[in-house]
Structure formats: structure tokens, C-alpha cells
Amino acid sequence: MNKKRAFCKYSALAGFLVLFFSCASSPAPEAVSKSGTVVVIHPDVKQNRTFFSSINKRAVELAENGSPESLKMAVSLVHKSNDEEYTENERVFLGMCSSIMEILWPSENSTWDIPSFPRENQYIGAIDSARRGIFDSSTGNSDFFTITLPSLVVVTAENKSDYIQSARESLQNALSLQSDSVMALYLYGRLLEKKGEYSEALKYLEKAKTFSPSNFEILFALMNCYYNCGEYNSAYIIGESLLSRFPQNVDVLHLSSRCAYGTGNLDKAEEYVVRIILLEPENISFLLFRAKILMEKADYIRASSLLDVYSRSDVDGKDYLLLRAQLQRDWNKNLTAAGEIIGKALRLYPQDMEVQLFAAEIASSSGIAVNGLKAVDIAGLVLKSDSSNYRGMKVYVTEMIKMSSWQEAYTYSSKVIGMSCADDEDFYSHIEICLALKKNDEASLIVNRLYSKNPQDENILQCYIKVLIATGKKDAALEMINRLLPSANAKMKSFLYYERSFYNTNDDDVLNDLRSSLTSNPRNKDSLYRLYEIYYGKKDWNRAQYYLKQVVALDSQNTRLLEKNAELDALRGKTQ
Predict the structure, then answer these.
(1) 407 vs 439: CA distance, rounded Å
(2) What are the helix and strand counts (H, E) for the chain?
(3) pLDDT at 516 (0 to 100)
(4) If DSSP codes are grouped into helix, strand and coil, which group holds residue 30?
(5) Model pLDDT, residue 518
(6) Per-residue DSSP letters for 255-306?
(7) How far is CA 206 from the centre of its chain?
(8) Are strands 30-32 and 38-40 parallel, antiparallel or unpaired?
(9) What is the distance between the terminal CA atoms of the chain, rounded to a whole angstrom?
(10) b vs e for 499-538, b when ≥16 Cβ sit within 10 Å of the residue's Cβ?
(11) Helices 507-520 and 490-500: crossing angle, nearest 10°?
């Protein structure tokens, strides 16, 4: 009987040991986050949470939320009037809450008194490591705080390469445990912001904002993400709100000035920049930004003065050279000088796409080469790097039209007008290309759509008349020309007289219309060139060259025109 009892005791003990060790060796349970990520929750999470088990449960929950408001409430629930009454765990808890507030929410006022607390523990240790820019992976991940606190490094460290992946995994774990934790949401949003994943960061920052709608740090991070997503108006609204509370905050002023510029509110952008310059007179980069704003406002005199001031410190900066070239082009109308300045920029920054684009545009509008490169060559460099670059394709189309390379122009122009940023000029160019290629149906479709939206626009009217003529509706075109002529302005009259000249069969009537066209606009290249053709056909070389030279003066880099002028020089020489 004793043997039987002994055997039973032994069996019971063996069963207990088997059960104990089988539990200890079983795999950690898993939780599936909302994103579908499987997160391993270590088996010691539950049992090690007892470190704060003696503390008010509500206070711990509030601390896990981690918003400024929650942290203040958590501290108030644990606060005691006598310093000696605090337990060690309470001291660690209060030290942890105070440190989170200090690191995450420096704009918030925290006036509570914190008792001395021991630093030799996993919570304070993780925080101290984060202050030094180190992700502490030795916390044991025993509870929400040890999982989350190492990721405070996201807001304390500049270099993200050392911790980025570890912090991402830890914060995903934290959010699987507490999906509404403002601290975890904010840290994860900031992590994504640092990685340049701005649109994804917005999701987490917006959720954090719902729990702490007036917090400066969350709002500023949101503002920055909106700005980098190109949502300038949303960012601008946040900036206005923040500046009403923090009018001297230069970081907000910096970003608000960019946002205002992005929305097209140039007056507000300049106002912010002026405030920045007053607060940071040594920050000359904003002198340059103000010059850029003034250029947009066509206030060239003040822009030029600011560029002169800036040049005392820097004459080789990319932005400075771009603005100088733009000033020469738009104000001084000196395309040669603009070409020389942008040529310098192209030598200093040969791979910079913004410099390449401006150089291509200068070369295209001036007809001169920049550093030996023609506009089409520079545009080709841009398109080689970015085949869908709008400005690059726009220049390329213009150059193809100049060279009468209509099929090539059509290929790129078709892409341009399919882009959301395409403007009316792009459609006018495409209509011209379609007419040159006899794609009259396509030209009609486009111009009818434009005409139905804005039948009074002069450029659209000109395109409409050209398409009417090209599609054989000459009577309708002539009726429109005669109807528009009496009330048309000088430029429009010049166009109308030119088009009407093709309807006349009498030479005198043709010449009268072309002369009337030039009376209204002496720089009408079409009328000048047609007069050259007429007199060339009559073998009146002197008059032909008189008109051709005026065309050459308007398009001095056009090799085809230069060849024709050289031919007339030779013909006139034979007759003299």
C-alpha cells in the first residue's frame, strides 16, 4: 500500500513536471495587427507586467496612451504629498512619465514635482539610451513600455540608419497591443516621416491628432507631411493655427512661408519671410526666397536689390544663379546674358534637373546654344533622366515644331496634353501639329472643346479659324473674320487681316490686307514672311529681302531663314 502511495505521488509529480516544461517550451502566442502583420507577444509579457501592478491601474493605462493630457492625469493619480511615501515602482513610473513628456512633448508645460527615482532599471535605461541616440534592444520586451520606450530614439537621433528597422518592428508590436496609444502612433508617424513615406505617416499622425487635437508636435509633423505630399493648403491651414499660438516660432514660420508660396498666396509668403528675416537676420537663404517671391510678383526692382545683397555672400549658389538668369530674361529682356548665367549654373551643377530645365527653356526662347548645347539637346538630357518630365517635353515639342519634325512633335505633344498640368498653350501647339500632319479630325475635336468653354478667348478664336480653314469650312471662317474685325484689338486684327489675305484673288487686295496686318502688328512674322514670298515670286529681290530681314530679326537663330537671306544676297549681287 505504501508502495502504491509512493508511486501515485511520483506519478503526480512527474505529470506536474511534464506539464510545466511543456508549457515553458511552447511557442509564444501571436497577435495579428490591423495591417495583417503577425506580432509575437512574448510569454513573459503578462507575468512581468507585475512591476507596475501595485500602481493605480488607470494611471498605467493613461501612461500607455502617452498623450500630454494622459501623462498629466497619470502623474496626478500617483502623486503624493510626502516624498517619502513613494514606493520604488512609483518613483520609476513617475520618472518614466516625466521623461516621456520631456522627450515627446517639449512644448507642453509640465509643472509637477517628480521624486528622485532609480536609473538602474529597464524603463529608465531604455529612455537614457534613447537620449543618447541609441536604440536599446536589451529591455526584454516584457510589457508595453519596454517595447515602446526604445523607439523614443526616433525623435532624439538624427541618423536613422542605425535604428530604423528595429524601431519599426517595436512600434508595430506596441500598436498591436495598444492601437490607440498616442505615443506609439506619433512615434510611428514620425518614423515614416523620416523615411520619406509622408502619405503613410499622415494616417498615424491624423489618428494621434484625434486624441490630442491641439498638441504642437503632432500638428507640426502633420503640417510637414502635408507639405511634402503637395497638399499645401492643408499644411497652410495648420500653420496659421500654430502661428496664432506660437507667433515667433521660426520652424513654423519657415514651413508656413513655403506652404503659402505653394498655394500661390505670395503676399502671405512674403509676410512670413519678412518675419523670419527679422528673427534670423543671419539667415540669408530667406533673402533669396524673398527675391524669388518678388520675382513671382514681377517686383523686379526689389528682387534685384535683394539679389545684390545676397551676392555679397554667395555668387555660385544654384538658386542664386537661377534667379539671376530669370531676372535677365524676364526684366532686362537680355537673353544673351541670361544664357551666360545659366551656362555657369550648368557647368557647376551639370546633373541638376532644375538647372537643365531652365537652360533648355533659355536656349529655346533665345535660339542660342548654352555651353555649346542646343535646347533640344538639353531637353533630351532631362527626358533621359525623367521621360515624363512636363517642362522637358514642352521644350522638346517646341523645338520639333521649329524644325518641322511634325511626327516627332506629335508623339511628345500627345503625352503633354494628356498630363494634368497641361495648359492651353500645349493644346494650341498640338492643334498646330495636327493641322501640319493633316490630322484635321483630332484638331477639330480639341478646338471645339476649347471653343465651347471659352468662345471669347483670342487664342482659341485664332485656332478655331485655322481649323475651319483647314477642314474646308472657308465660308464660315470668312464670316467669322469679317464679324470680328471691327471690334478686334491690334494683335487680333493683325491675325485676322493675315488670314483674310488668303481669300483675295486680286494681288492688290492681298497686299492691302497684309499691310493692314503689319500696321496693326509690325512684328507679325507670318505677314512679313508672306510678303517676302510674294515679292520673291515676283523676283523683286530688294523688297523680298526687306521683309525677310525683318523676319530674321525676330528669329535670328533660324538657320532656314538665314539660308534664304544668304540666297537673296547672292541674287541681288547678280542684278547689281
Answers:
(1) 11
(2) 32, 2
(3) 96
(4) strand
(5) 96
(6) HHHHHHHHHT-HHHHHHHHHHHHHH-TT-THHHHHHHHHHHHTT-HHHHHHH
(7) 20
(8) antiparallel
(9) 147
(10) bbbebeeeeeebbebbebbbebbeebbbbbbbbbebbbee
(11) 160
- The length of the chain in residues reads 576
**Distance from chain centroid for Cα 31:** 38
Q: What is the pLDDT of residue 139?
A: 83
- What pTM did the predictor assign? 0.76
pLDDT for 46 equals 39
Query: How confident is the model over 76-120, as pLDDT tens digits?
Result: 999 998 888 999 999 999 999 999 999 999 999 877 788 888 888
Q: Which three cell numbers stand for residue 18?
A: 511534464
- Which positions of the chain have pLDDT values less than 70? 1-50, 160, 575-576
Rounded Cα–Cα distance for residues 456 and 489 (Å): 13
Three cell numbers at 289? 526666397
In the structure grid, which three cell numbers stand for residue 419, read together? 498630363
For 549, the enclosing helix (H) or strand (E) is: helix 541-554
Contact in structure between 362 and 378 (CB atoms under 8 Å): no
Task: Please give the pLDDT value at position 32.
Answer: 36
Query: Residue 294, Cβ neighbours under 10 Å: how many?
Result: 22
Residue with cell 506536474: 16
Read off the amino acid at residue 356. Answer: Q
φ/ψ of residue 168, rounded to 5? -65, -45
pLDDT of residue 541: 92
Given a contact cutoff of 8 angstroms between Cβ atoms, the answer to whether 329 and 348 are in contact is no
Q: Which residues contact 337 (CB under 8 A, 6 or more apart)?
A: 328
Cell of 493: 486684327
